[in-house]
Each structure stands twice: as C-alpha cells, then as structure tokens.
Design goal:
Order of helices and strands: HHH
Bound molecules: zinc ion
Radius of gyration: 19 Å
Largest sheet: none
Structural class: mainly alpha
Number of strands: 0
Number of helices: 3
Helix content: 25-40%
Oligomer: single chain
Number of domains: 1
C-alpha cells in the first residue's frame, strides 16, 4: 500500500504517545498535529494513511474512552498529590490540601485535550493489534458502521 519499509517495528508506548495507528504504528490517528488546536484536535482520519486500517472499528467505538480518560485523570491526580506532599507538604492545620485541589483541577482542565487524544490512542491500541504484515493486507475491517454517526463520540 505504500513504500515505507516494514522491517523495523516502532515501539508500542511511543506509538501510543505519538497518536499513531496501532496496526502499522506509522500513520497518524488525528488529522491535526497540534493538540491545542481546540476546534480540530479531535478530528480523526477515517483510515490510516499508511496501511489503510479504519480507525472507527464499530458504531460508538470511542464511547469507552471516557473510562480511560477518567483513569488517566485519577492517575495524574495521584501523582500530583504525591509530588505536592513531597515538595509543599500536606497538613490539617492550613489550606495546603485545598490549594492542591484547586491547582490539580486547573492542571486537569489544561491537560484535557491531551487526555482525550491519549485515551483514544490507548483505546484503539487495545483492540487493533500490531501487524508485521501491515503493508500487505489483513486489515480488521469495520464490522458495522453508521456513516452519519462517525466521529460523533
Ligand atoms: Zn496504519
């Protein structure tokens, strides 16, 4: 399907973090590179431009990313709480815990575009495995797709 060599396999974690197609780990999931282009950052390619893998595998496929995004937000909050406790400290005698809550909330809002993209990238990587034959077929085709509902989740 394309002229890219298929012998070197890009790493799983880096391809998820770079929002790459899970099947070939080379094509881009999203149309725009800029995560903070807030009007367009969630627009996905219909298919991988490198291997042809469809990115909407079934109707409402990305509905489950809400749970992934929630898990990521909880993990980030846990890390920021530990970092806050180690650097600034926590006490019942002052408002430091409430300061952490406010700053953590701002951090999560600021990171929301990253979390939304990352959760989609993680989600499709769970369901579409890497294929060493990505250049020559064996695509997991979408089972049932409603064109009107595509990219609507
Ligand atoms: Zn691909």
């Amino acid at each position: 399907m394309c002229a890219v060599k298929s012998d070197d396999k890009p790493g799983l974690i880096l391809s998820i973090l770079r929002y790459k197609c899970p099947r070939c780990r080379r094509g881009n999931l999203f149309q725009k590179k800029n995560t903070y282009d807030l009007k367009n950052f969630m627009k996905m390619n219909e298919r991988c431009e490198v291997c042809g893998q469809p990115f909407e595998v079934e109707v409402g496929f990305y509905y489950g990313t809400g749970f992934v995004s929630y898990g990521l937000a909880v993990a980030i909050s846990g890390i920021s709480l530990v970092l806050w406790a180690l650097t600034i400290g926590l006490s019942l005698d002052d408002n430091r815990f409430f300061w952490w809550m406010g700053i953590n909330a701002l951090l999560l809002v600021a990171m929301q575009p990253i979390l939304m993209r990352l959760s989609r990238s993680l989600w499709i990587a769970i369901f579409v495995p890497y294929s060493k034959n990505w250049a020559s077929g064996d695509i997991i085709e979408a089972e049932r797709i409603n064109k009107d509902q595509m990219n609507n989740w």
